[in-house]
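thread from #wetlab-drylab

HS: before we spend reagent money on co-crystallization trials with L45E5XJ5, can we at least see a predicted complex? here's what I'd submit
DV: go for it
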Amino acid sequence: MHNVVFVLGPPGSGKGTICAKIQENLGYVHLSAGDLLRAERQREGSEFGALIEQHIRNGSIVPVEITCALLENAMNNSGDAKGFLVDGFPRNEDNLQGWNKQMTGKALVQFVLFLSCPVPICIQRCLNRGQGRTDDNEESLKKRVETYNRQTFPIIEHFEKNGLVREVKSERSVEEIYADVVEVFNQAAKV
Ligand SMILES: Nc1ncnc2c1ncn2[C@@H]1O[C@H](COP(=O)(O)OP(=O)(O)OP(=O)(O)O)[C@@H](O)[C@H]1O
Ligand SMILES: Nc1ccn([C@@H]2O[C@H](COP(=O)(O)O)[C@@H](O)[C@H]2O)c(=O)n1
Ligand SMILES: [Mg+2]
């Protein structure tokens, strides 16, 4: 059984940054759904490359069959891990249903780490990111934020109703955020 922490928040809220620190210090393996999709987009011979790029530019969500297969493969190929930080997933109802269908009995969701941050700050961070992402531009960001508000936030609310959400405000320095995140993981380890 894989232990899983879902990590959600608006685009640019710092999910990847904080997951890298958790992976470095707390023994969880970081799996970013977006990174896995970008790698699949680049893989020679992938039948999904063009479809993935279309969704990434439009800020829309790739069908779960593709994303969940990438996540499950990555988990199975990671060897023994204390748990997995599944960053940027589930992003919509299709992701959630597909995960439940494919991963029930194979993964246990410990909690959902929600990095909350005002959208204008998130947009500025993405525009300054400098990684050459095809979706870090004003037009794509507008669509990504819309997708977050319309499709992803309701998923966070769903988990909130089930008592699974641990919110950490991420409009602060990485050090301040990470200190609160460590506390969340310490509390989770006690139960
Ligand atoms: N607390 C912070 N304060 C200032 N800048 C930050 C902070 N956290 C992350 N950043 C910067 O903001 C940018 C976006 O961060 P990151 O890639 O971690 O976000 P993300 O939530 O994974 O975004 P996306 O959803 O687009 O993948 C990066 O350039 C990162 O260095
Ligand atoms: N569950 C997911 C996650 C991501 N995507 C697509 O990738 C884009 C980038 O994601 P980041 O988390 O790296 O920002 C995202 O806008 C989607 O197009 C997805 O489809 N499903
Ligand atoms: Mg990211």
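DV: The chain has eight helices and five strands.
HS: ok that's useful, forwarding to the group
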